[in-house]
Write a structure and sequence with these properties.
The complex is a heterodimer of chains A (about 120) and B (about 110).
Chain A lengths: L3 E3 L3 E4 L5 E7 L5 E8 L3 E8 L6 E2 L6 E7 L2 E6 L8 E8 L11 E2 L3 E5 L1
Parallel strand pairs in A: 2-11
Antiparallel strand pairs in A: 1-3, 3-8, 4-5, 4-9, 5-6, 7-8, 9-10, 9-11
Chain B lengths: L3 E4 L2 E5 L4 E7 L5 E7 L5 E7 L5 E4 L2 E5 L5 E6 L8 E10 L2 E4 L3 E6 L1
Parallel strand pairs in B: 2-11
Antiparallel strand pairs in B: 1-3, 3-8, 4-5, 4-9, 6-7, 7-8, 9-10, 9-11
Classes of the chains: A mainly beta (about 120), B mainly beta (about 110).
Chain lengths: ~120, ~110
Amino acid sequence: DVKVTQSSRYLVKRTGEKVFLECVQDMDHENMFWYRQDPGLGLRLIYFSYDVKMKEKGDIPEGYSVSREKKERFSLILESASTNQTSMYLCASNNKRLFYSNQPQHFGDGTRLSIL
Amino acid sequence: SQELEQSPQSLIVQEGKNLTINCTSSKTLYGLYWYKQKYGEGLIFLMMLQKGGEEKSHEKITAKLDEKKQQSSLHITASQPSHAGIYLCGADMNFNKFYFGSGTKLNVKP
């Protein structure tokens, strides 16, 4: 089974802190994703990466950055945390989509982040 | 997302009853995925549909994709409390870009 592991289930940080959320997958997937999930807004894509050291902005990248130094690890960084970044953060991974071959994303358990 | 409309937004059913959740797009879907999320947890992948008219079942859950590949339904037969959670549809529309529906909250009353 695919295993996507997020480093923390719950995290409390203060405004202005630099926050790191870590995600590791064990299936040698090329693609990795970071989402945030908020009531009434659903899942929104922050950043994704399709290869080591490659990254693409999603729908809401402002206030975030990412790092992918190794294939299995994708980090989300909140440069200077703000209260509006309090949310549930979900990491996902999948294989590169080949011609006519779709690949579902597999998710971690999520990190519930509170910024005080 | 607006690309995928999911209905209903919430559902309360009596244990043992059948139910259906719908997911609709105005565009052709390359792949349609169903996920279940328990409250406060991550998404669990249930099923993937790719071909028009395709139908898949797992235990008491059946998912179908229509011939035009623009609408999918998730049907639960004889619901149980263990089926409670949030069901989300997701779809491939552009290269490596997923869209997700807003989710359907399901409560099953014992």
